[in-house]
Structure formats: structure tokens, C-alpha cells
Amino acid sequence: MSGENGGRIRRSGRAAVVVLGDIGRSPRMQYHALSLARQAHLEVDIVAYGGSDPHSAVKHHNSVHIHEMTQWPSNPRSLPKILRPLLLIFKPLVQFLMLLWYLCVKIPAPDVFIVQNPPSVPTLVAVKLASWIRRSAFIIDWHNFGYTLLALSLGRNSRFVALYHWIEKHFGKVANGSLCVTKAMQHELAQNWGISATVLYDQPPEFFRPASLEEKHKLFCRIDKSLRTPYSLQDCLSNEEITTDNDNPNVTLFTTQTGSDISLKWNRPALIVSSTSWTPDEDFSILLEAALMYDRRVSALLNEDDLKREEVLWQEIKGGKQYPRLLFIITGKGPEKEKYEQKIAKLNLKRVAFRTMWLAPEDYPLLLGSADLGVCLHTSSSGLDLPMKVVDMFGCGLPVCAVSYSCINELVEVDKNGLLFSSSSELADQFMMLFKGFPGECDELKSLRQGVLASRSSVNWATEWEENAKPLISKVIFENSS
Fold this sequence. Notes:
The protein is of the alpha/beta class. It folds into 2 domains: about 15-205 and about 460-480, Glycogen Phosphorylase B (Rossmann fold, 3-Layer(aba) Sandwich); about 215-455, Glycogen Phosphorylase B (Rossmann fold, 3-Layer(aba) Sandwich), CATH 3.40.50. Helices cover about 40% and strands about 15% of the residues. The protein has helices spanning about 25-40, 55-60, 85-105, 125-135, 145-155, 160-175, 185-195, 215-225, 285-300, 310-320, 335-345, 365-370, 390-395, 425-435, 445-455, 460-480, and strands at about 15-20, 45-50, 65-70, 110-115, 135-140, 175-180, 200, 255-260, 260-265, 270-275, 325-330, 350-355, 375, 400-405, 420. It has a 7-stranded parallel beta sheet with strand order 3-2-1-4-5-6-7, sandwiched between helices. A 6-stranded parallel beta sheet has the order 12-11-10-13-14-15, with helices on both faces. A hairpin with a 2-residue loop joins strand 8 and strand 9. Helix 8 crosses helix 12. The longest helix has 23 residues, at about 85-105. The chain is globular, with a radius of gyration of 24 Å. The protein starts with 13 loop residues before the first strand and ends with a helix. Mean pLDDT is about 85; it is low at about 1-10, about 240-245 and about 305-315.
């Protein structure tokens, strides 16, 4: 890879990707590592926490080397409030020293550090110091603003938030280069931070694509047991009267295999997928309320009688009657997961079922490629970033319903590849519209899917990275080595 004036990377050609978080839950930084290895032909050291496995393409690439730091333990709930400010100081201090050890001692000296932001503290400080010690270039990839995330828990007027904002801005300005995820963020960085950033839109890598019928069937076979296990005593997927094919390994809730022939069931539930970090910036109660509204509205519309014998009612629901059963699969890990699982267990739903799960990195794209609709609850603490989960969904040919906020239209085009909503009632209306006549006659849903498929082939991560990230990385390495 050459820089301006034909300059070439010094040393042996090496980059360090720095994530103060779980590398398995940092897809964009994984894609950076792959592109640095594949397209820039660099040796790549990833310095991050473990916890979740990265994609096999990252794990098994000969030029990508993962260095897992020791994870900071969860904050004890029993810690007195008076001691919590001390924890806010002590935790980043320990993280700072650990980062320095890895960046300055554990890995070979890189030509460039590429660091994920947020978190900003102590990451930007540690990487800046390490880049000075090792005479390396230093690039920040702005995913969001760290101070806005901290303000969700401490409030905008907190002194810690103000200090965090100053550190983030100061060290952001001394970086050799910056990437960011939206034009809105690029404008904010230029106008109010004095930082020139290159927009690198998130794009799915090649392994995010629509799933074949055979891939769908194999996936559903692997997760069938989990799908049939409800949170409460029973629901529309677990009732014994309608799951008589439980013990047949060739029959799932969605597919049937006879010999070598695989077919989708006519009375299958509609599959809706949402990925969440189970944090306060994604209000999962919106989806719960919308699901409950769908359940009640369809029941009232079809004049379903709750006094009918239970097995007869389940059988009629299974039959569809224009509106299908909805299965929501919620993927992800996070602090509020258990709270919402308890809420789900208490819901009295007849036509809707929820399942939460954590999938292997190779199965997650298959799930998206097998679903009928994606739902995104991301609202953005800054209003300037875009949800990677929607990018992944589009890569798999999956239309979305997403929460509306300031810059989401840089990604979701209404009535072309998805819909936007601002309330649970609006989301419930969208479910009613999209799934009427499912699976054969839902024209609006089919139109959105066609829109996604028409646009997904126009650009991908490799071309986006080649056109925007690679020139910047080449330039800062050349200038730093001159």
C-alpha cells in the first residue's frame, strides 16, 4: 500500500485495531481488521476484550492476531453510592495501564493504530501516548460520541460528563486522521470540534446475504428446540395440540423436508428479528407494547372468542385467518435482558411469541437471511450515528422497521427498504399492514424486500473501505514516516 508521492509503509507493514470492548460484539472493527489484512496486505493486531467469539473469517485469518485483555469485572450493585465516583476514577486508571501494557509491550510496533470511539476514556489517551512512544500514526473511527452515552446515566449537567467531553474533544483533535459513520457526524465534527473526518458508511461484508432454503432449514433444525420452549406455560408455538411434529427431525416450525425436497410451511409464523444490546438507549418496551397491540387488534378484528376451548382456539390461530402468528427472535447481550424476559413471561399473548438467544457468529447472518422483517430500536445518544444491525439486515435482504431519529434517513429510505416509527402504536400499525395475507398476499412486505435486494448489490464493505478508509490510512502512515 502506498501513500502520497509514492511513499510506502515503513517497517514490515503492520496495523493495530484497538477496541475497549468485546471484539465479538464490535463488527465494524472486525471488518476493519479483515480489510487491513486482505486489501492493504498488513499484519493486524487486534487489542480488545474477549467474551464473544469474532467471526471465523477473523479468527482464522493468518495475518490477524487477537490479543485479549482481562475484562473489567461488573460493577457490584451493593457498592455504596458514596463510593461510586471513586469507581469512575479507578476503573479508567486500571484500563489505561492495561492498554498501555498491550499497546507498548505485548504487540509489535504498528505503523498505525485504529481505535474505536467510544469509549473515549481512557482509550484515546492511552492510544495517543502509545502512538507517541512507538512513533506510529493514530486514527480514530468515530462510531458515536462517548460523552453523550455517559450522559444517559449521569445526566448532561454532570461534571464527569463535562470532563469526558473535554478529553474526547482534545484527544480527537490530536489524532492523525478520523473516520466517522454518517455525514451528520462529519458535519458536527467539522463545525463544533474542529476535526476533519472521512465518512465510511457501514456496509455488510460478504457473509451477510440472503439465505438459501436449504440453509434456512438447517438453521431452523439447529434452533428448533429453543424456538419451541416458551417463557410462560405455553404460547402459540409451544401448545401441544399444534406441535405434534416435535419429534420429527425433518420438520421445523417453518420448514418441512421430504427426501431431498425442502418446502416452507404455508401456516408458518412470520419471523421478526431484532438485535439489541439491552441498554437504556434502546427502549425494548416499545416492541413489547407493539406486539401486544398486534395480538389484541387481530383478536378483535377476527372476533375471536376467548371462551372457546383452548385447543380449538390455538388451532384456529395456527390456521392464520389473514393475519399470521408472529415470532420475535431477539438476539444480543446486555444489562436489561433479564428484566425484559420476566416481562415477556407475564404477557398473555395468543398470536405472538418471543424468544431471546445468542447465536454463533456464523448463524447470525443466516437468521437475518431467513427472517421476514427486522426491527431496530436504536435511537442514538447523539442522534448522529447509524445502527450497524440495520446494515447487516439489508445485507441479508431483510427489510426493516426502525425508530425514527435525526439522521436515520441516511440509511433507511421509507417505502423503499423499510419503514420508520415513533411509537409502539405506529409500529403495531406497520405489523398489521405488512403481514396481512402472510405469506402469500403481503404485497407491501414483498415490495420492501425487493427494494432491499435491488440496492444491496450496488456497494459493499470492501469497495467502501477501498474508496474511503484505505486512502486515509495510506496518507497518515506516509506523513508520519516522512
